[in-house]
Amino acid sequence: MLAAEGVVKRYGGVVALEGVSIRAAAGECVALVGESGSGKTTLLRCFNRMTTPDAGRVTVEGADVASADAVDLRRRIGYVQQEGGLLPHWTVLRNASLVPWLRGEADAEAKGAAALEWVGLDAAELGGRWPRELSGGQRQRVAIARSLAARPGIVLLDEPFGALDAITRADLQDAFGTLRRELGITALLVTHDLHEAALLADRIAVLRRGRIEQVASPEALVRAPETEYVAGLVARSRLGAG
Amino acid sequence: MMRRILALAALLVILPARSVGAQAADARPVVIASKPFAESYLLAEMFAQVLEGRGIAVERRAGLGATEIAFGALRTGAIDVYPEYTGTGLLAILGEPPRSDPAAVFGRVSREFGRRWGVRWLPPLGFENTYAIAVRKETAERYGLRTLTDLARAAPQLRAGFTPDFIGREDGLPGLRAAYGLRPRSVRPLVQAVKYRALAEGAVDVIDGYSTDGLIDRYGLVVLEDDRGFFPPYEAAALVSARLQRDRPDAVAVLTTLSGRLDVRTMRALNRRVEVDGEPVARVAADGLRELGLAGALDRGDAAPAARGGSLGAYLWERRGALARLTGRHLLLVALSLLAAAAVAVPLGVMLGRARAGAAEGTVRAVGVLQTIPGIALLAFMIPLLGIGMVPALAALFLYSLYPIVRNTYTGVRDAGPEAVEAARALGMSDAQVLRHVRLPLAAPSIMAGVRTSAVIAVGTATLAAFIGAGGLGDPIVAGLALSDTRMILSGAIPAALLALLVDAALALAERRVRPRGLG
């Protein structure tokens, strides 16, 4: 379970988050949607302490992250970034086994290999390759496998499919959605794509200039947008059409 | 591979060094030095042989950088004796204005050197070696030149080629300008080794020679008379350290037997044999001593290279043993200084890569300032702290090697795979783990490139080590420049260039090996 209450973050004079509160129940996937600069990535990074809020409270499974050991916290939470996050000098298998290895688990490689299979990669065939030898879609599958290998209860995803072509993206979205539900993972998904949010998330939070405009299920968002901004967003995405 | 080269290099250096180190401190050999020009080599060799003739052990440190290095070494007791000129002592060391009376100058330098540093001028050897402003015979005839006053009149039509030293010294061009109004059409800085040839071939019209240079005769040059008595007297004499006076009065007494024995004609003839005929310094010195009735230690055996006529290949082959030893020494200087520099610069660069950008950039630039200190100046600074020889040379090379390694390590670590670093942190690597498993492996090629740059620079810079008696391939270069011996210069320069290429290639290989395989 994830919760943020009244979170404020400023960078110099620029306000990134202006009193944001949001919750994700166990097993729920919440999408953070907004334009560049809306504060969605900043909010995501507060949950694994990659960012420290100026004010407010962030809890993970009921515990305040401010009092947690950052390194230990991060090893319990999966993380996927847009692209390029694989260690280029490590093999695919070693990349996938990173978190179990950091946690000192004896069967780290086995866990990494299993995670590769979950995302549809043949660990025996691809495990020994270097990241640069894979396609963009395969690399992003490895990144997702890496975030899940240690079987975390929570995964944070920052535009994980943003850099992929449409077909690869659709494949990967499907694979991730299925996997997340099977494993019962709580997820926060940052995206600027309302379609992706509607496809993968149980609820969508729309952010604008560091504030939350509306949090609702995809259906409710389409049916009853609470602000003009959300209405415009829905209209432009043609999400309700068809 | 590297370890084997190092071991070999160390062996080459330690073997000859052991025989020196084995002597007890009170039986330390008399250390005889010279400055890097032919006459200085010759006088120092005569000092050495006259002492050896009386059974006194000596160690030769020929060709020390320049006045400040040779005198600095003498003052601090790193060397015991070298030939110097009273005028240089007065002007360049004491910084006093010129005087024209030789006895007054000798009296002044004797008193002041003794009072300030306990250094003693032995009675002069018997000849003066002053500046000799020289022109070609045709030039003298065409413009009717006999004196410096005549020269000043014709100067606007003439191109001068002067040693850099002369261009700057108060008793050089600035003084001549004041005393005679001498203003040549152009002034070009030329080193001793090429000055005479440049004049003979008409590239310049007037040069500053020394009055005892053997090449003045050889090229049939006209030396212009100093009709206003501008140049101070430059009487040659042995300059003796406080330590030698205290510990070895017997050696000082033996050196005094040369006082008043060498006239200018004798000296010019001896210089000519070295500079023009290319005879070995040791043989010419021995002959000179024999003519004076002073038995030197003859036939030092190792000093009989072929006459200058033979091919370069034969010359190099003949000296292969000595060259191998010098190359080993050179490599050792480079390897030790580079290892020490890497041991300091890599951790420093890593630290800076994680410090605040402003502070880090400032520190890197400060290290870079070291790079701008001229080699000779840096060596001169080292002498009061570290004396002469291997240690100050290593210290100087170490300082020169820091910057490229610090700069490359710093930028390499700072800029290493930003997305990979971000992901590694977000998934729970500690800062130390990020450094060890991500930043350093990704920065390794950049760090090695810095080491490689430093190594190639160090191979070149290490030739300067000869100026403070540290040996290496600079030895034949410095001596060859001083003796106008092109083959000798090449016998140091060619192996040094090959060594630079070899070191570069070896480290290029190392650079490729430290590159993580995943980077392709």
CATH-wise, what's the superfamily of the largest domain in chain B?
MetI-like
Please state the CA-atom Rg of chain B, rounded to the nearest Å: 26 Å
Poorly predicted regions of chain A are none
Overall geometry of chain B comes to: elongated
**Beta-strand content estimate of chain A:** 25-35%
Total of DSSP H or I helical runs spanning 4+ residues of chain A: 11
Give the biggest beta sheet of chain B. Answer: 5 strands, mixed
Greatest interface = A-B, 29 and 22 residues
Mean pLDDT of chain B: 87
> Can you tell me the residue ranges of chain B where pLDDT is under 50 for at least 5 consecutive residues?
1-25, 299-306
- Give the tally of structural domains of chain B: 3
Q: Which bin fits the share of residues in helices of chain A?
A: 25-40%
Structural account:
The complex is a heterodimer of chains A (242) and B (520). With 242 residues, chain A is α/β, with parallel strands linked by helices. Helix content of chain A is 38%, strand content 25%. Chain A is built from eleven helices and ten strands. Chain A has a six-stranded mixed beta sheet, sandwiched between helices. In chain A, strands 2-1-4-5 form a four-stranded antiparallel beta sheet, with helices on one face. In chain A, α8 links the parallel β7 and β8. In chain A, α5 crosses α7. Chain A is globular, with a radius of gyration of 18 Å. The two termini of chain A are 34 Å apart. The mean pLDDT of chain A is 93. Chain B folds into three domains: 175 residues, 3-Layer(aba) Sandwich (D-Maltodextrin-Binding Protein, domain 2); 93 residues, Osmoprotection protein (prox), domain 2 (D-Maltodextrin-Binding Protein, domain 2, 3-Layer(aba) Sandwich); 200 residues, Orthogonal Bundle (MetI-like fold), CATH 1.10.3720. Helices cover 61% and strands 8% of the residues of chain B. Chain B contains 24 helices and ten strands. In chain B, strands 7-6-8-5-9 form a five-stranded mixed beta sheet. A three-stranded antiparallel beta sheet of chain B has the order 3-10-4, sandwiched between helices. A two-stranded parallel ribbon of chain B has the order 1-2. In chain B, α21 runs antiparallel to α22, α22 runs antiparallel to α24 and α23 packs antiparallel against α24. Chain B is elongated, with a radius of gyration of 26 Å. Chain B starts with a helix and ends in a 6-residue tail after the last helix. Classes of the chains: A alpha/beta (242), B alpha/beta (520).
